[in-house]
Amino acid sequence: MTGLLAATTSAADKRAAFRAGLNSTRIQRIPGAFNPLVATLIQEIGFEGVYISGAVLSADLGLPDIGLTTLTEVAGRGQQIARVTDLPVLIDADTGFGEPMSAARTVTVMEDAGIAGLHLEDQVNPKRCGHLDGKAVVPVEDMVRRLRAAVSARRDPNFVLCARTDAAGIEGIDAAIDRARAYAEAGADLIFTEALSTAADFEKFRAAVPIPLLANMTEFGKSELLSAQTLEAIGYNAVIYPVTTLRLAMHAAESGLREILATGTQAALLDRMQHRSRLYELLQYERYNEFDSEIYNFTLGRNQ
């Protein structure tokens, strides 16, 4: 049964691995998973972590990314995904779902859900997608209080608290650097600067901030899509691909549905589908059959 119904690696060990990875010389590549099955695939292919995007979770619920999701919804999906993977899971906790005390509670709930780390952002609530215009950020002092509350609630010292700043596109990179330094002093373990544009921007940030840094390589946004190798050479410690798997899946689903509507059959789509045998392989179907046989390996006599 080991590794069948749940991951074999404990939450504590995943957090220790995440922190060790951030402190290593190798960049941690962390694609987004929109469900547990995708997280299983991310692990099998060989990435270092799994990311859960607030924008993706909102979209999955048919909602825009403007802070409508609740702590319960986000933590529930986080627990479902963390359960199936031995990789550390980093989750988007938006602005902490309320005031500083809410941010503190968010940390305890995410720890209990088996998450390895979360990021809190300095946007005004209700927030919006980090690559859209018209964002607003709270005063530095408010975000520092938010972070300090989160730090105070942490029980596992290896649980990674990441501070995201959206100030670069509003106040400029220098202001964002000042914020990042203040957030590091408040106890953040990792800094996520949203919507940087060029490699030079990433280099400037790396030179100015003394703690681990996370890059967001989301598509169709404000950032140049830099390779993991380039980011590692600059000195970044982690990179997320938050919406990539959802965009791939939705594009394929839309294309396939239009084909069925137009032709009345999915026959021409079979070579674009995951085969049943591959799905069963990911789900370890044969191991479940073996387990079932071992449990129900008796026969009933006439008088039983």
From TrEMBL:
Known cofactor(s): Mg(2+)
InterPro entries found in the cross-reference section: ICL/PEPM, Isocitrate_lyase_ph_CS, PrpB, Pyrv/PenolPyrv_kinase-like_dom, Pyrv_kinase-like_dom_sf
Pathway terms, separated by semicolons: Organic acid metabolism; propanoate degradation
Reaction catalysis annotation: (2S,3R)-3-hydroxybutane-1,2,3-tricarboxylate = pyruvate + succinate; 3-hydroxybutane-1,2,3-tricarboxylate = pyruvate + succinate
Signal peptide: none
Function: Involved in the methylcitric acid cycle. Catalyzes the cleavage of 2-methylisocitrate to yield pyruvate and succinate. Catalyzes the thermodynamically favored C-C bond cleavage of (2R,3S)-2-methylisocitrate to yield pyruvate and succinate.
Family statement drawn from the similarity comment of this UniProt entry: Belongs to the isocitrate lyase/PEP mutase superfamily. Methylisocitrate lyase family.
Protein name: Methylisocitrate lyase
Native source species: Nocardia huaxiensis
